[in-house]
Amino acid sequence: MLIAIPDVLTAEQVARARQRLDAAAWIDGKVTAGPQSARAKDNLQLPESDPTARELGDVILGALQRNPLFISAALPLRIFPPLFNRYQGGQSFGNHVDNAIRQVTGTPHRIRTDLSATLFFANPDEYDGGELVVEDTYGVHSVKLPAGHLVLYPSTSLHSVRPVTRGARVASFFWIQSMVRDDGQRTLLFDLDSAIQRVATDTDHPAVVQLTGIYHNLIRRWADA
Q1: What is the mean pLDDT of each run of 10 residues along the chain (225 residues)?
Q2: What pLDDT score does 156 carry?
Q3: Is 44 helix (H, G, I), strand (E, B) or coil?
Q4: Are 126 and 89 in contact (CB under 8 A)?
Q5: Residue 29 gets which letter from DSSP?
């Protein structure tokens, strides 16, 4: 399941973040790449210990906790602290699949990467190229969203970032360990929850109560919490 989530951050939050990010000290993005992806990765990244990265990461995590569409789609158990990257001057990231397990730097904690997320900080008209290309069983999807919007997709997907030939593509990226690790099960739960929201004008209607019960019983069956 690939889903775009609009307005995760407000325009004011994006503007403040861009001021900090544009003034930050960027380093070679290969610092967080595995052996395979390092050969395909050409971008810039903020160090994980950078105060700007930590501050803006907290802003993102707070926004995600308040976003019902993200909660419904991801059913998050753990979220990797957001990282930040920048592509410019022809930089790109070739086809790769994200590592299955990520160690949280400086801690004993690890997460299983069920879902990958990209949150855009540059609007599409600020740069040429830079599309996130995700391949799945339904074909190839090209994603380039407005600043403040997020795209969520399975970490098992083959994906890439096309070369940026003008301007700069600035984004945050991170991973989610879901309570439901199977993408097919998560998709069914998301579709069911979305349908309940659409028909739940009468929350006391027996059908709404029954559907809500089915949803939660499936969560009980499939979730690790």
Answers
A1: 96 97 92 69 94 97 98 98 97 95 93 98 98 92 98 96 98 98 96 91 80 96 93
A2: 95
A3: strand
A4: no
A5: G
User: String of b and e for 194-224 (b: at least 16 CB within 10 Å)?
Assistant: eebeeeeeeeeeeeeeebeeebeeebeebbe
DSSP state, residue 101: E
Task: Please list the helix, strand and coil fractions of the chain in percent, rounded to the nearest 5, in that order.
Answer: 35, 30, 35
Burial class (CB in 10 A: 0-12, 13-18, 19+), 119: buried
Q: Please tell me the predicted confidence (pLDDT) of residue 202.
A: 66
- pLDDT at 37 (0 to 100): 66
Report long-range pairs for 132-139 (Cβ below 8 Å, ≥24 apart): 132/159, 132/160, 132/161, 133/159, 133/160, 133/161, 133/162, 134/2, 134/158, 134/159, 135/95, 135/159, 136/2
Measure the CA–CA gap between 75 and 17, rounded to whole angstroms. Answer: 26
d(CA 219, CA 107): 29
Q: In whole angstroms, how far apart are CA 71 and each of 43, 47, 61, 174?
A: 30, 28, 12, 15
Instruction: Give the span between the Cα atoms of 104 and 184, in whole angstroms.
Output: 27
Q: Report whether 160 contacts 92 (CB < 8 A).
A: yes
Please state the separation of Cα 95 from the chain's center in Å. 17
Q: Are 64 and 79 in contact (CB under 8 A)?
A: yes
